[in-house]
Amino acid sequence: MKHNNRKFYSGLTLLELVVAMSISLMLVLVVGALIVSQTQAWQQTYNKAHSQIQEDSLMLATAFGKMGRMANRNNYVIYGIAGTTFTPVVSATPNVDTVVSGDAVEFRYWDVPLDSTDSHQLMDVTKTATAYALFYLSSGQIKVDYGPYNWVTNVGAIPTGGGTRNTAGINTLVLANNVTADPNIKIFSHTTVSGQGYGCVRMNAILTDPSSGDKLKVMTSVLMRNMWPR
């Protein structure tokens, strides 16, 4: 009687082990590549969201909107700038609805409490504003001057009728760098009817990142609700 002396062993052959390790390595490489790609994409998104032009645009829109909402609708001015001279911009056709645009806007607002001597806490009718915020484009920067407004002489940032801006007793902040105006319209604009503004001022600025060349267009508007005297 013959006996079968062959023995059977459980396990992997060397070839099977090499194949299994190769497949595992490929999976690790694929997963690693996906992780690196996702990390790079997240980093790019983060960098873009926190770039200087993004921060400048947020600061610009916030300051513009805040001061506009505080301003007196009956007492604001849009200016054109030539050199150092600021000139109020008016419609060439005052009897027609016209979009008037310029390089600066002066918001005039109240930074003092209501008249405490009046039992009804009414606003003093003679005070059309007590302070001003002048937003203007200068050498590729949008700046804002904060200063006191003289309601007696009706003079704030610029003399009545135009001139050089006031530089005494003011606080100047740079809100955005590398700014240009849209070629079709200047940075600040509003619509006038019979020469009178509606009280809705628009801003249209283009910010450029000097390192990447990326551009960001900032388009916003503010509606002035405060009117005094009525």
Whole-angstrom Rg: 32 Å
State the strand order across the main sheet.
7-2-1-4-5-6-8
- Helix residue percentage: 10-25%
**Uncertain stretches:** none
SSE arrangement, N to C: HHEEEEEEEEEEEE
Oligomer description: single chain
Count of DSSP strands: 12
Mean pLDDT: 83
* Apparent shape: elongated
**DSSP helical segment count:** 2
Class based on secondary structure composition and strand pairing: alpha+beta
Number of domains: 2
Approximately what portion of the residues adopt beta-strand conformation? 25-35%
Q: How would you summarize the topology of this molecule?
A:
Blueprint: H1 14-49, H2 52-70, E1 77-82, E2 85-88, E3 98-102, E4 104-109, E5 131-138, E6 141-148, E7 163-164, E8 171-176, E9 179-181, E10 188-193, E11 196-208, E12 215-223
Antiparallel strand pairs: 1-2, 1-4, 2-7, 3-10, 4-5, 5-6, 6-8, 9-11, 10-11, 11-12
What features would you highlight for this structure?
single chain; 230 residues; alpha+beta; 2 domains; seven-stranded antiparallel β-sheet; five-stranded antiparallel β-sheet; 2 helices; 33% strand
Describe what this molecule looks like in 3D:
This protein has two domains: 13-50; 52-223, no CATH class. The longest helix has 36 residues, at 14-49. It has helices at residues 14-49, 52-70, and strands spanning 77-82, 85-88, 98-102, 104-109, 131-138, 141-148, 163-164, 171-176, 179-181, 188-193, 196-208, 215-223. It has two helices and twelve strands. β5 (131-138) and β6 (141-148) form a beta hairpin. The strands form two sheets. A seven-stranded antiparallel sheet has the order 7-2-1-4-5-6-8, with helices on one face. Strands 3, 9, 10, 11 and 12 form a five-stranded antiparallel sheet that branches. By secondary structure, it is an alpha+beta fold.
